[in-house]
Amino acid sequence: MNAVPRRDNYDVVVIGAGPAGLAAAATAAEAGLSTLLLDENAGPGGQVWRAIASTPVTERDRLGADYWAGAELVQAVRASSAEIIQRATVWSLDRNLEIGVSVGGASSFVKARRVILATGALERPFPIPGWTLPGVMTAGAAQTMLKSSGLVPDGPTVIAGQGPLLWLLVAQILRLGGRIDRILDTTERRNYLAALPHAFAFVTSPYFAKGLAMMREVRAKVPVVGGVSELAAAGDGQLATVSYTGSGRRETVPAGLLLLHQGVVPNVNLAMASGIEHRWDDLQLCWSPVLDRDCNTSVEGIAIAGDGAGIGGAGAAVVRGRIAATSAVEALAPAAAAKLAPMATFRAALAQAERGRTFLDTLFRPAPQFRIPTGDTIVCRCEEVTAKDILDAVAIGATGPNQLKAYRRTGMGPCQGRLCGLTVTELMAQARDKTPQEIGYYRLRAPVKPITLAELAAVPKTEADVQAVVRG
Amino acid sequence: MFKRSDQDSRQPVHIVVDGAAVEAREGDTVSAALLASGRDVRRATAVSGAPRLPYCMMGVCFDCLVTIDGVGNRQGCLVPVADGMQIEIQKGKREIGR
Prior knowledge:
The structure holds two protein chains of two kinds.
Chain A: E1 9-15, H1 19-30, E2 35-38, H2 60-63, H3 65-68, H4 70-79, E3 83-85, E4 88-93, E5 98-103, E6 106-117, E7 121-123, E8 136-138, H5 139-149, E9 151-153, E10 157-162, H6 164-175, E11 182-185, H7 189-195, H8 199-203, H9 206-219, E12 224-225, E13 229-234, E14 241-246, E15 249-254, E16 257-262, E17 264-266, H10 269-273, E18 278-281, E19 286-289, E20 302-304, H11 313-332, H12 334-337, H13 343-353, H14 357-363, H15 368-371, E21 378-380, E22 385-386, H16 387-395, H17 401-408, H18 421-432, H19 436-439, H20 453-457, H21 463-469
Parallel strand pairs in A: 1-2, 1-6, 2-3, 6-20, 8-16, 10-11, 10-16, 11-12
Antiparallel strand pairs in A: 4-5, 5-6, 7-17, 13-14, 14-15, 18-19, 21-22
Helix pairs in contact in A: 1-4, 1-11, 5-6, 6-9, 7-14, 11-13, 16-18
Chain B: E1 2-4, E2 12-17, E3 20-25, H1 30-36, E4 43-44, E5 51-52, E6 65-68, E7 71-75, E8 86-88
Parallel strand pairs in B: 2-8
Antiparallel strand pairs in B: 2-3, 4-5, 6-7, 6-8
């Protein structure tokens, strides 16, 4: 059975137990602050270290050293005074640092003096024709099943997209006896040239040798088609074929499973719903929070660490988690902060961890055709709204994502815009000849995850809460 | 679509999917167990009735929505299986009260 929070207030509440959240919780607890770590999954690790405490994949070289690097941090947090609650869904956070959290079907509120959001990233939407068909999944989905349940693709499988995760995943699937028939690399040729000026930092970063070795391992076993465009999935109620243009030729191959990946973007829902200012990032093509050097946001008392602060990878996430927590300790318990590692060491470590990132962001910048769909391609998976529907709404006066809700309900389904928001912003920006910053994003509100009315009604309330709404 | 790695030596867990017994493993999420079962576990959307399977497996896409022990619209990818768990594949809209 899940535990509920033991207290109703904490010095520090950390939301998300991936690399950033684990590091933040460990640091805050080490300094003697009362620390609560809330995480939605069954075990700690986030996505990159998913199921690290429970994976059935026991031969360590199958998942790689970067995966197992998380074990030590999980151990440190578990040994610390931090209270950890798994399967806790945070659905609300406001400017008073009150957190609404659902555990085991019951919700309660906890108050924090500092909140560190470590809600990480999600995969960038990949809106191609047929991407809602059963059998089309994200690469991350396959990796999640591989790590937490030892499940690997079986039957004809195609993987399409670009970026480091794609190659890592194929290597892991093959090592575990899974099947990948073809890799469709969608990296635009012109990106290689654009990335060249940033190559030195990358070549001298830890990514380089690892990436090269992995690509060599994969290329020896799986055919790779480069420069892929016009990707489409098709089938009658179930994926049957994948079509694409590569090297000037149109090809169609049979597939039971298509895995898509074109990088990851910050998971902004909770941060935006708590009123934190975000800006459009022209390099990473996503919304990123406006932060100071200590990871503090525009809302007093809330910091963001990890990929939710802008994509930096697991190494940078750990360091940002420590920076955010150290900053919280400096504010709440200056005497304890003196005993922690000095902030300067973290800043140097962050610069090191972020080395090579600009190269990766430039090389693996997703092509416009895979970000901004046309015609009957579905944009909003929940409400089943197509690119054409959205352009039609723009033509009769929809100015931005929030007006569009009234026209087409985009972003109003259960995923709350997570799988369509970026596409809608870019599609409308292009149609209206505006920048994504000018077009803006959905106005997000709590609850950022659906909870039942019964659960909401059962939230503990004071006499004053009741009096505030009772009439007569 | 997916098969279990031969490294997997976790204990079996028995769940019921639309009345049929399905063997999962301890630590599987409901969605992973359904995808591993080899059964047709496609849900039908509330909007058009289109068939869907889980897309993200990490709690963001809501294409894994499923009825678990009588409670509708649960995210199957976030709920671990338990012995005797009753799963219903959702076909279309939910009804009030469940």
